[in-house]
Amino acid sequence: MLGVDPGLTRCGLGVVEGDPGRPLSLVAAGIMRTPAGEDVAARLLALETEIERWLGTHQPDAVAVERVFSQHNVRTVMGTAQAGAVAIVCGARRGLPVALHTPSEVKAAVTGSGRADKAQVTRMVTRLLRMADPPRPADTADALALAICHLWRGAAQQRMTAQQQAARQRMAAAAKGRSGAGALTPGGTR
């Protein structure tokens, strides 16, 4: 799972591996930086190149990107949204499932509280991935938290979908069994 904490100046990237019932493991973590004074098109292109490199190197099964939420600084929101869109397109180009998670969803998944601060998220990511040192900067920890959130939510979603499909199959089989007893055949006989 590739987690992307989008940003034009700093974009956090983290790859986590895990299966339900087994411990998570850190594959890679890092940050992509672009100079604030550079043209936005060149910055987005550099970001796309780096995300493509990570996708090619780590071959994740899916991509989790932080959903842009309302902020007071419009310039920050625009840069974050543009960087997030690049990550989404890179994943989609490779045919990977792309999931968007809000910051509060990620915090709740990793810490148990949607109002956790960055230090709490970093501590839990460090603990969950059994890291000797906390990931720095916070953008890297956030990218890892996104990957963890999606791994856990994705596993839960798969279980729910499987349970729903099994329930539908049982209901269809029961309905078919009821319709067979006493139903009229096309010829009008029982």
Concise structural overview:
The chain has 190 residues and is of the alpha/beta class.
CATH class: Alpha Beta
- CATH topology label: Nucleotidyltransferase, domain 5
Total domain count: 1
**Strand content bin:** 15-25%
Strand order in the sheet with the most strands: 3-2-1-4-5
Number of DSSP helices? 5
The H-and-E topology, N to C, reads as EEEHEHEHHH
Shape: globular
Structure classification: alpha/beta
Query: Can you give the helix content as a percent range?
Result: 40-55%
End-to-end C-alpha gap: 56 Å
- CATH homologous superfamily (4th level) name: Ribonuclease H-like superfamily/Ribonuclease H
Q: What is the rounded Rg?
A: 22 Å
> How many strand segments?
5
Using the 3D structure, state the CATH architecture.
Answer: 2-Layer Sandwich
Low-confidence stretches: none
Largest sheet: 5 strands, mixed
The overall pLDDT average reads 88
Helix and strand arrangement:
Layout: E1 2-5, E2 10-17, E3 25-33, H1 40-58, E4 63-66, H2 74-93, E5 98-101, H3 103-111, H4 118-128, H5 138-180
Parallel strand pairs: 1-4, 4-5
Antiparallel strand pairs: 1-2, 2-3
Verbal overview:
This protein has 190 residues and is an alpha/beta fold. It has one domain (2-178): Ribonuclease H-like superfamily/Ribonuclease H (Nucleotidyltransferase, domain 5, 2-Layer Sandwich), CATH 3.30.420.10. The chain is built from five helices and five strands; from the N terminus they run βββαβαβααα. The protein has helices spanning 40-58, 74-93, 103-111, 118-128, 138-180, and strands spanning 2-5, 10-17, 25-33, 63-66, 98-101. Strands 3-2-1-4-5 form a five-stranded mixed sheet. α4 crosses α5. The longest helix has 43 residues, at 138-180. The chain is globular.
